[in-house]
Design a protein that fits this description.
2 copies of one chain form a homodimer. In chain A, α1 packs antiparallel against α4, α6 runs antiparallel to α7 and α8 packs antiparallel against α10. In chain A, the strands form 4 sheets. Chain A has an 8-stranded mixed beta sheet with strand order 2-6-7-14-13-12-8-11. Chain A has a 5-stranded mixed beta sheet with strand order 16-15-17-18-19. A 3-stranded antiparallel beta sheet of chain A has the order 3-5-4. Chain A has 522 residues and is an alpha+beta fold. Chains A and B meet through β1, α1, β2, β3 and β4 of A and β1, α1, β2, β3 and β4 of B. β1 of chain A pairs antiparallel with β2 of chain B.
Chain lengths: 522, 522
């Protein structure tokens, strides 16, 4: 059975977890990124494209999956160094900000777009190479920089086609979360390393509030949680009064989340009645409640004050709670955030494969990371920024029918006589010179049916035909494939007759006739 | 001396041979690629973006540097597989053409743009990550496909700003070269593996004709060559009559190269008088001479016939010898070419660092590679394509002053009163809403001089100033930084007075005044 003659053939496969993008998948993404870049540029941000390869030590270890500190990147050894593919666009920015600190303006506003790579277990819809689109301001300590990033993100989302009301940008502050931890007795400002693992569990639990519900979170804060399958997740082991402190904060989160109403319904279904307290300005109310929750933690109070400033700066520019709100439940996975954190959530629902409505969820996130550049320079350098999940945002636009995926194929000039290739290429050249997308059929011309099948597969609007007879008369046949398809699908014989899908015109009228047909189908 | 306290800081450095691109370096490249993509699209080519990571076996070993068959790529092991970064865009296309052969149209015209990686020794101006921009047609055996690629390359070069006359596309055919080898007795059609190393030396020698001159090539065909430093390069060890056969071909090459005149001067200086025989249609004459040189080699005759067809198809579309010519001296380094090969050369000279004129040379190349897809499928699949060296083409446009590298900085709204941030952000928001690039100064506002220095570093055209007095009066100061710089440079005191570089306007006239000043400087 085995056929072992000749050398073994390589497998024609993308490596596991990688994929290729075809045609409009490439151009639709490009069109979206172009629009975002325009917004970033208008805000004064400059383009930066860093090398895809970095030293492992420059990248650092900041991936969310803390259980695998040595994995997560694609790395290889070179001489004494380890090199790796970047896993995000923030770590390279920190390196650039340190490397070129004498030459760059301060503050340095930059945007970056490109692929990043993560050595994770691939799964359905989960890839190991994906696009990010980031904007960051390095060297600005003021929360005005955070507010600007949020406003810019809002503009960018609207620019690509997410209308106001279909998204909300939720802002929180790590300092507030730290304040809550301090009040609960699991953060000692004098010894920040103490209780680090407990805090990690608490943050992850809050981050999963939507999915686990209040009782799930409470279990994780205490002894741990057993899920439906019987798997047990280790808890933080907090005492009852500590848990109560954090649950008070969770209450505030639940009342001011963007989906507070929707969520309160869901929570009610999970056995806990809720009331929506947002009111006309949920941000202002949230601030009031948060101040009570962080009690006398210095860091917590500072965090609440910063949130107030952000809300007021944004309001001055017209960005009200219909676009950007304070939401205490935002946590963000990455370990390096030190201040404001933000997340853009799409609030419309789409139907999943089984026709059930599903919230779209987060498409962008970011925050302040004042210590990343310090890793290199030893000097503190404040920084803040946002990253848009390009593939998710594209999927959202697709789901909303806002992507043009019907890229039109070229006009196909068919080949009737193999020895008159020059004539056909001349026609193609004329069409292209008139800025009409066109090509000559380059496959084996023997079977004419194959040529029309090819035109069909390309989504061609028009096929051009010129046999020997037509050539002698100086004419060409122009076949309107769009009309032809419509007639074949719907029309009666009468209609067919009145609308000829194929016409004969003089060779010199080829370009004009093609243009007329294309215009008609626009 | 050593300060070892705290953890060791990572070095803020790109790995050796890698670099970052800033601001207009990114946007100028993007603008150029956008123009090229437009041409490719008009020709009916579809976008494709393959994964950056491939299996090593799918990539194959086709890098030009045959001395290091196992190197050249960045690779790492994963489970049982070796993965690597792509070293060009052709090998991934061959994989795609095999993997999706049921779904793709035949022929499949695709373009691709993106970085590729080569694990080579870095040197000055020689990087291990660089951009390529390719277009290929898979599944078309006809030389019409090769002709189309050449025409498209010509259009693309003119579209990005290389005027006709400043470039030439040189076309040759590997089959002609094989014919010459056959005639010289170093290619046996019945046993293609025989004399492979001799042929390798001969091809490399012809490829270096420009640099080594005729006598250098002759030495490499025979016993070898000693260069000025005394280093010896091994020769092919051919017999005198074999060498003579190849030198006859070299003669033809020299007479029909695009730079034949320039080169004949250079060769004359190297002690060998030359005459330019090009005439009004160098392609037609070259074909005549080549037919004589390949004598009765079947493959050689076929190659010459293909060149004739290409020249005639191109002529029918108006691409004459002012743009595309037959040039027997084109070899191309890559091992996988099987038919027509082409190269785009810029024919203008630029000045090097020392002010000496220098030819710009090759910016694109390609050819037919009918066996690449066969590696995967076992079935022969004809293919042809071209790759543009993006960085070289950009450098050429830069040298010709055709790149817009003066990207204008944003209007900078300065911060006089730290507690009126909302006012300043409001101004910025108004400017941005009017589509004017603008930002608020986000650094420490204490030192006002720093704010103006920042505006200068950003290349800002205008700075906006509003202190407490102005705020009370409802006005702003608008500082025209471009005019200010001109005045500081050239003007006398009288002129300075007549042209105020700073004016006071009502807050509500801010946007209009800024727009007027920007328009004036356009």
């Amino acid at each position: 059975m085995a056929k072992t003659k000749g050398p073994r053939r390589p497998k024609a496969e993308t490596p596991k977890g990688f994929r290729d993008y075809f045609g409009h998948e490439v151009t639709a993404r490009k069109a979206m990124l172009d629009k975002i870049a325009e917004v970033y540029h208008r805000y004064g941000f400059d383009a930066l494209e860093t090398s895809a390869v970095e030293t492992v030590e420059a990248l650092g270890k900041f991936l969310p999956d803390v259980d695998r500190p040595n994995e997560g990147v694609f790395a290889w050894e070179e001489d004494a160094d380890w090199l790796a593919l970047r896993y995000d666009l923030t770590a390279p920015l920190a390196r650039v900000a340190a490397q070129y600190r004498q030459d760059l303006p301060t503050p340095y506003r930059r945007y970056a777009m490109g692929p990043v790579w993560r050595n994770e277990k691939p799964g359905p819809g989960r890839f190991r190479q994906f696009y990010q689109c980031d904007a960051d301001t390095v060297g600005a300590a003021s929360v005005a920089a955070d507010a600007e990033i949020c406003a810019m993100l809002s503009d960018a989302l609207e620019e690509v086609g997410i209308p106001r009301g279909d998204y909300v940008i939720r802002v929180n502050n790590r300092k507030v979360l730290n304040g809550v931890m301090e009040v609960a007795g699991i953060l000692d400002p004098a010894d920040p390393e103490k209780f680090a693992s407990e805090r990690g569990i608490v943050l992850r639990a809050i981050d999963k509030l939507d999915r686990l519900g209040v009782e799930g979170v409470r279990a994780l804060l205490g002894e741990g949680r057993k899920d439906e399958s019987g798997d047990v997740t280790k808890g933080a082991g907090l005492r009852t009064e500590q848990i109560q402190r954090i649950m008070t904060f969770i209450d505030v989160s639940l009342q001011f989340g963007p989906e507070a109403q929707a969520r309160s319904k869901k929570i009610a279904m999970m056995g806990r009645p809720m009331m929506f307290l947002g009111g006309s300005n949920p941000s202002a109310s949230a601030v009031k409640f948060l101040r009570a929750v962080v009690s006398d933690s210095e860091q917590g109070i500072e965090g609440v004050y910063e949130l107030e400033q952000i809300a007021s700066l944004l309001a001055a520019q017209g960005y009200g709670p219909d676009r950007i709100i304070i939401d205490p439940s935002v946590v963000r996975g990455l370990g390096y955030y030190t201040g404001p954190v933000f997340e853009a959530e799409l609030t419309f629902s789409i139907e999943d494969e089984k026709g059930r409505p599903r919230q779209f969820g987060s498409v962008a996130g970011g925050g302040r990371y004042d210590d990343l550049v310090k890793r290199f320079t030893g000097q503190p350098v404040p920084a803040t920024g946002v990253s848009i999940g390009v593939d998710r945002l594209l999927a959202a636009l697709q789901a909303k029918g806002r992507l043009d995926t019907t890229a039109q194929g070229p006009v196909v000039v068919t080949v009737m006589d193999r020895d008159r290739m020059s004539d056909y290429m001349g026609m193609v050249a004329d069409l292209r010179a008139a800025d009409i997308r066109a090509e000559m059929y380059l496959g084996n011309p023997k079977n004419f049916g194959n040529q029309l099948k090819y035109a069909d597969k390309r989504g061609s609007p028009i096929a051009i035909i010129q046999g020997g007879d037509e050539a002698a008369k100086g004419v060409v046949q122009i076949k309107d494939l769009i009309l032809g398809a419509k007639i074949a699908q719907q029309a009666t014989v009468e209609e067919w007759k009145s609308q000829p899908a194929q016409i004969e015109v003089a060779r010199e009228n080829l370009v004009q006739t093609v243009r007329d047909i294309l215009d008609r189908h626009k």
